[in-house]
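User: I'll paste a sequence; please echo it back and then give the predicted structure.

Assistant: Echoing your sequence first, then the prediction.
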Amino acid sequence: MAMKSNIYVEYQGKQTDCKDVLAAAKKVWVDEGNKVKDLKTVDLYIKPEENAVYYVFNEDESGKIEL
C-alpha cells in the first residue's frame, strides 16, 4: 500500500493545505497563457504572517498569491 501524506500550514487559527497552494500556483501559470507541461520547477514560499505565498516558476518568473 502506498503512503498517503498531507501537509498543512497552520497560523493564527487558519489552516492551509499545501496541495491547494500548489494548485493555485499552477492555475496562475496556466492563466498567464502557459502550458502545465512547460512548468519544470515550482518553488513556493508560504508566509502565513503575510497571508501570502510567493512563487518562482522555472527558477525565473516570480510573484505572489494571497491566501
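Strands lie at 8-11, 14-17, 42-47, 52-57, 61-66. Residues 10 and 54 are 17 Å apart (CA to CA).
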